[in-house]
């Protein structure tokens, strides 16, 4: 007589607890590896990297979203916690790092907003803790399957630096005021161009394919064609789950 195992509520509960535990374990591994700052600075060790990747794999096998490319959870504001060599997040970060000496500037955060088939990746940098500058990489997303998407780079925008007056040393505030007054006297067209930042049209020259290997209301994991993972955590409140629509995929 063959005994059959019945998958009931207790089994589903156990699997959900395993998933939540695996997710918490991954987030702790990021902190143990030094977090975003250590990753950007290249200070993560081989042991820390392999530990993080092992926990990424453990969480991916418990993915609760079978069709992540059409899930409402995909859209929103995300923050990069871990990324690989082919990531557009790394592209945006390197654009800033190549233009400023590391002793004078530090990358404070790397975020991504996904909305209506577009993604904006923003690398935010602080110079001498006085000036904040950003490079925004805009990409177009197209669905190619339940887990697969194509990403085309549209343009890069180097935003005009923002200076916070309250952080300026007292001895420099007079010079700052004079500079600000001079800028205000420029023609409106020039001021608008300065405020709009410097745009680099990419026109779909660069593109990549990637898989969404894990998605829930808090964590997003994607892998490029080389299998290198990017891990992001949600910044904004997650949308309410609803019935996913069936989308015709591009071939």
From TrEMBL:
Origin superkingdom: Eukaryota
GO cellular component: plastid
UniProt organism field: Abeliophyllum distichum
Cell compartments where the protein resides: Plastid
Keywords noted in UniProt: Plastid, Transit peptide
Matches recorded under InterPro entries: PAP, PAP/fibrillin_dom
Domain Plastid lipid-associated protein/fibrillin conserved: 44-228
Descriptive protein name: Plastid-lipid-associated protein 13
Location (main, coarse): plastid
Entry-linked Pfam families: PAP_fibrillin
């Amino acid at each position: 007589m063959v005994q059959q195992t019945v998958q009931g509520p207790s089994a589903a509960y156990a699997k959900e607890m395993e998933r939540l535990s695996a997710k918490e374990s991954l987030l702790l591994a990021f902190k143990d590896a030094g977090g975003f700052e250590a990753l950007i600075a290249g200070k993560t060790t081989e042991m820390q990297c392999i530990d993080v990747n092992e926990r990424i794999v453990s969480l991916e096998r418990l993915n609760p979203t079978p069709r992540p490319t059409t899930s409402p959870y995909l859209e929103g504001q995300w923050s990069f916690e871990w990324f690989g060599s082919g990531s557009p997040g790394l592209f945006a970060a390197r654009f800033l790092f190549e233009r400023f000496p590391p002793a004078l500037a530090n990358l404070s955060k790397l975020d991504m907003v996904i909305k209506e088939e577009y993604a904006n990746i923003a690398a935010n940098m602080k110079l001498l803790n006085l000036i904040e500058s950003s490079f925004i990489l805009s990409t177009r997303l197209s669905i190619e399957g339940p887990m697969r998407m194509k990403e085309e780079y549209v343009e890069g925008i180097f935003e005009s630096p923002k200076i916070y007056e309250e952080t300026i040393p007292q001895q420099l505030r007079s010079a700052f005021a004079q500079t600000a007054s001079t800028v205000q006297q420029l023609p409106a067209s020039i001021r608008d161009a300065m405020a709009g930042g410097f745009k680099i049209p990419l026109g779909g020259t660069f593109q990549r394919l990637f898989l969404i290997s894990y998605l829930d209301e808090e964590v997003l994991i994607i892998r490029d064609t080389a299998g290198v993972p990017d891990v992001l955590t949600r910044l904004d409140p997650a949308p309410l789950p609803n019935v996913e629509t069936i989308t015709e995929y591009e071939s």
